[in-house]
Design goal:
The complex is a heterodimer of chains A (about 200) and B (about 400).
Chain A (H helix, E strand, L loop, with lengths): L5 E5 L3 H13 L3 E6 L5 H8 L3 E5 L5 H10 L5 E2 L9 H9 L2 E5 L5 H28 L3 H25 L3 H15 L3 H12 L4
Parallel strand pairs in A: 1-2, 1-3
Antiparallel strand pairs in A: 3-5, 4-5
Chain B lengths: L5 H9 L8 E6 L6 H8 L2 H4 L3 E6 L3 H9 L6 E4 H8 L8 E6 L5 E6 H7 L8 H14 L4 E5 L5 H12 L8 E5 L2 H9 L5 E5 L2 H7 L3 E6 H4 L6 E6 H6 L1 H18 L2 H13 L29 H19 L17 H10 L19 E3 L6 E3 L7
Parallel strand pairs in B: 1-2, 6-7, 6-8
Antiparallel strand pairs in B: 3-10, 4-10, 5-8, 5-9, 11-12
Helix pairs in contact in B: 2-13, 2-14, 5-15, 9-10, 13-16
Classes of the chains: A alpha/beta (about 200), B alpha/beta (about 400).
């Protein structure tokens, strides 16, 4: 095993990837590259031969790496595979932080842990920044109300579909007719349908 | 009518032991075949069973598996191959189990419009045999590889693709380069010429054709009519800790499948996926019946051991290939440890579902509908012929 571990970072979030790359370099790792979603992911991994790949747990490209690990013995394997042999807690913490990793066979547990810790810290830092941003964006509330109204209409429609065992179109027509007959907005009709039909067992 | 009556509703939940865990998170990948989960949620079937379910949209099967393994998800529909592979410790450390199938059919094979014109210039209706002959002739005439994409190594359509190629004497790994591409990237990758063929669940095949980027070569039911696909996966540990929650979950999903077992309802269910933002794709211009999804019980929902055997053989064949004959490494537990037929029976009985007498059936040989002995009456089974 080489002394200096080589790492490949795959993350759609460019800022987070940059932050992680810097943190890894500061710790003395050699970062082979930062990839965003790419068609040639499998070929790139083949050429770069990283010791460890850090990838966003929710990246759709994980199934690409998965295929490499399952079909090619020399490729990095999902870190979850090592959970039973060693540090289950760190791996669980990684997954809870949205970090997934693929490591080559024979890499020692403490080296895996050290690198996972760096990634976990950076991902968490980013998570915190993001939730703060969401908090600040109060103007989103307006959009949320509109969405809630739409969801109520859909919910009412589903209740009718379920109750009358009818299609969505028929349920929608029924609601529109009620709205016209009662001269009320659709959202009001939806609310009263929900209050009535939800009472039924 | 399939919708249960009020008295059944009130009594069904009370026939189950109290749920060990009420608040459950279920993962799903946005495909048409995730519809039972969505219907169970939106129609309140989970709630009726005393479960408070949160649905979580996931972006890869690997993510679903990891989150189920570490308890971030309680359960998820997944390709049966992933569940059976976990029992052999392939790609997982925690063995997973299933007590319920979540539908038949729903997949297809799409080729780029360019390749379609090469394979079928006169635009004939293809069978699995004529399509194979055309592909074989094409492969003989070209140098370079034809790039073929599936969505996961252990996805059902990857197995069907390999079985079809092998059956018609085409080497799946000669001149065909096998890739994995996430479903939402398939059409884009085909448009840019990165892949020539893809195997995926609906609606991706229909969408590729509607956008004139690809053309369906074969639907999966031409390779194996009414083939099984997704199952409800949980870890063995979760099942052991939450047996009553598991039963209640299955009951709610069986109710959803009963509701979906009718053409109009099924199409209405698919449209809901889009309307309620579970599936980000325009379904308006496509034939939602193309995938021929089937949610009939017990046929499409029973965990048939004979199907577990088929998936297992494919997982084994692939890993033997990968491990280069180190097949001794594979520790395969009995199928009954992974496919929990008794759990299904316990739940389905309460919903008056006619159950098969045996846990296995003959697979892939019936050209027409056929019958099987059932606990209530004879079960009318759908054709299940391979290579039509």
């Amino acid at each position: 095993m080489k002394n200096r571990l080589t790492v490949l970072v795959i993350d759609e979030d460019k800022e987070r990837a940059a932050l992680l790359e810097q943190a890894l370099r500061d710790q003395g790792y050699e970062v082979l590259g930062r990839l965003h979603s790419t068609d040639l992911m499998a070929d790139k991994v083949d050429v770069l031969k990283p010791d460890i790949i850090i990838i966003d747990l929710d990246s759709p490209d994980r199934d690409v790496l998965e295929n490499m690990a399952l079909m090619n013995q020399s490729c990095p394997r999902p870190v979850i595979m090592f959970a039973e042999q060693g540090d289950q807690a760190t791996i669980e913490k990684a997954i809870r932080s949205g970090v997934s990793a693929y490591v080559v066979d024979g890499l020692e547990q403490h080296r895996i842990k050290a690198i996972l810790d760096v990634a976990i810290a950076r991902f968490r830092e980013f998570q915190a920044i993001r939730s703060e941003l969401n908090h600040v964006h109060g103007e989103l509330n307006q959009a949320r109300t509109e969405l809630a109204d739409r969801n109520l209409t859909e919910k009412a429609k589903i209740l009718i579909m379920k109750h009358n065992n009818c299609t969505e179109d028929k349920a929608h027509q029924a609601m529109r007719k009620m709205a016209m007959d009662q001269q009320k907005p659709l959202i009001e009709i939806a609310k009263s349908i929900i209050s009535v039909l939800e009472l039924l067992p | 009518m399939n919708t249960p009556t009020t008295s059944q509703k009130a009594s069904l939940a009370s026939t189950f032991p109290a749920a060990e865990k009420h608040a459950l998170t279920i993962g799903f990948i946005p495909l048409l075949d995730c519809v039972p989960i969505i219907v169970a949620q939106e129609f309140g079937f989970f709630e009726e069973m005393g479960l408070d379910v949160t649905l979580s949209c996931e972006s890869s099967w690997a993510s679903i598996r990891d989150k189920v393994q570490f308890g971030l998800l309680d359960a998820a529909p997944m390709p049966a191959g992933i569940v059976l592979a976990s029992a052999m410790k392939l790609g997982a450390t925690q063995p997973m189990v299933t007590a319920m199938g979540l539908g038949l059919n729903g997949n297809a094979m799409t080729v780029s419009t360019k390749l379609w014109e090469q394979l079928n210039p006169s635009g004939e209706t293809l069978t699995s045999q004529t399509a194979a002959q055309a592909l074989k002739a094409y492969l003989a005439s070209v140098e370079g590889p034809v790039n073929v994409a599936s969505v996961h190594t252990y996805s059902t359509h990857h197995f069907l693709l390999r079985e079809w190629l092998t059956h018609f004497n085409i080497d799946p790994d000669n001149k065909l380069k096998q890739h994995v591409v996430p479903p939402p990237h398939m059409i884009d990758a085909m448009q840019r010429g990165v892949i020539d063929v893809f195997c995926a669940g609906e609606p991706w095949n229909s969408l590729a054709q509607a956008q004139q980027i690809g053309h369906t070569l074969l639907s999966s039911h031409q390779i194996w009519e009414n083939a099984p696909d997704k199952v409800l996966g949980v870890t063995r540990r979760w099942h052991d800790t939450n047996p009553a929650s598991h039963q209640r979950l299955i009951a709610a999903l069986l109710k959803a499948c009963l509701w979906l077992d009718n053409h109009e309802n099924k199409i209405a269910g698919f449209m809901l996926l889009n309307k309620l933002n579970y599936l980000d794709a325009d379904l308006s211009g496509i034939d939602l019946n193309f995938g021929q999804h089937c949610f009939t019980s017990p046929e499409a929902t029973f965990p048939w051991l004979s199907q577990a055997q088929w998936f297992t053989e494919h997982v084994q064949a692939l890993s033997e290939k990968a491990l280069a004959k180190k097949s001794a490494l594979l520790n395969q537990p009995p199928l009954t440890e992974t496919y929990l037929t008794e759990t299904y029976r316990t739940v389905a009985e309460k919903l008056n579902i006619n159950l098969p007498i045996h846990n296995t059936k003959t697979e892939g040989t019936h050209a027409d509908s056929w019958q099987l002995s059932g606990t209530i009456q004879r079960i009318n089974m759908l054709p299940d012929l391979k290579f039509k």
